[in-house]
Amino acid sequence: MIKKSSNHINQNEGTIFERSRPGKVGYHLPALDVPAEDSLIAARLLRDDDLAGLPEVSEVDVIRHFTRISTWNYAVDLGMYPLGSCTMKYNPKINERVSRFDGFAASHPYLPDEQAQGNLELLKRLEDALAEITGLPGVSLQPAAGAQGEMTGLMVIRACLEARGNARKVVLIPDSAHGTNPASAAVCGYQVKTIKSTAEGAVDLEALRAMVNEDVAALMLTNPSTLGLFEENIEEVCKILHDAGGLVYMDGANMNALVGVTRPGDMGVDVIHLNLHKTFSTPHGGGGPGAGPIAVTAELQPFLPVPRVVVEDGKYKLDFNRPQTIGRVRAFHGNYSVLVRALCYILTLGAEGLREATETAVLNANYIAHHLKDDYELGVQGKAMHEVIFNDKRQQKFGVHTLDIAKRLIDYGFHPMTIYFPLVVPGAMMIEPTESEGRDELDVFIDAMKSIAREAEENPELVKTAPHNTRIGRLDEAAAARKPVLRWKPASKAASA
Ligand SMILES: *Cc1c(COP(=O)(O)O)cnc(C)c1O
């Protein structure tokens, strides 16, 4: 049984079916002044049941029902969303406005090129901007998410190595990588070998040298890593791979820490994917649409997905004639409206604004690290980039763990941080404030975290049983996973089921 922790009616709204009362309606149609439908429509096309089971509700029932449940969401428009690795920055409303312009929102993907010049120009301008930002000249906007970008990038690497004569067998991945990396390598038919990080969280160069040979196709490197650290030996890492005929894939989902300051292409990276829905500010989460474009070196360009947007005689055109392409990875042109938002974000900020956003993201994470390091133990030594990781070692002696701290944070009105990730930091609490937060909001968050640290010491039960100010109390996560209740049934049927 789920524990309800609030008596407030807004917080106890049931399903719309529970509001149903026989005969209630939300509309009144005028009397029919044309022949009744059964004389116009063939009898076999008319339904013969009585729509049993649909809720019978009034207009005000419907409005209250949906308005109440709409208040149960947490959103970045409501408050800080410090979910590390996810870059939950504020999404400027101008992006939404522009993506809804008819010319973007209502144009059909099968429009002939001549009638879609503006749409194609947008794709080209975004490609050019991302090439400039990454320092890598070949961009494909097709992949629909970061993980699909990884797969596409590895397919491009495989095609290039095949063209050189040998696709090779192994992809090396540091233990601080994002979990999607090994999954993508496996999907592309590569065997994954893990490289251990040094105590400082960097790639162990000796271990790397020992593992690189003519079987290694590529190294997949998350930079900054999931420890929030910049890979300071990146140039040496690239050199080791290149000398052995391998390539370097950079997971660029954390580009929020680098944009406008430094460019992966200049460091020697061959392929990168970007998460437009993170770094370039389009709403994401809950499985909504994203975009995971890849950028590659000139050598890898011929293998990019088709079609490519090209300019011929001053006109934009889709080019399918690329003999070495890996083919399509997605229908049409990617998640187009996400691409519109991302270009809008890039153009409204401009080069200087993008750099300032990066610097502020890094400053904000370090501000939190500085103010909380006396209350929580830092999970990683080293200079934090755009996110900071603590662990629960100091709270454990009071029986309070990371999960309890995250749940208690909900009572203070914040979305919890990312917890128990990355796996290499036991009890990790990963906080990414992003550049969207001003100092006032950061201070309120820091106060909440300090207050929870005090509670853990003085009243650990309060933290261990949190949350208390929410609609429902703490859920049994094991039961939710093992015995999920995915469907509501009317009381009569639930009893007999
Ligand atoms: C979010 C993230 C991914 C995966 O991106 P999706 O768009 O969710 O597929 C990959 N790597 C890192 C480092 C990430 O933060």
Give a short summary of the structure.
The protein is an alpha/beta fold. The protein contains 18 helices and 13 strands.
Tally the beta strands: 13
Rg from Cα: 27 Å
- How many distinct folded domains? 3
Strand order of the largest sheet: 1-7-6-5-4-2-3
The average pLDDT value, as a whole number, equals 93
Distance N to C terminus? 17 Å
What does this structure look like?
The chain has 497 residues and is α/β, with parallel strands linked by helices. The chain folds into three domains: 1-72, no CATH class; 93-348, Aspartate Aminotransferase, domain 2, CATH 3.40.640.10; 357-482, Aspartate Aminotransferase, domain 1 (Alpha-Beta Complex), CATH 3.90.1150.10. Helices cover 37% and strands 11% of the residues. A seven-stranded mixed β-sheet has the order 1-7-6-5-4-2-3, sandwiched between helices. Helix 9 (234-243) links the parallel strand 4 and strand 5. Helix 5 runs parallel beside helix 12. It is globular and about 80 Å long. The structure holds pyridoxal-5'-phosphate. Pyridoxal-5'-phosphate is lined by residues 85, 145-147, 178, 180, 222, 251, 253-254, 275, 290, 292.
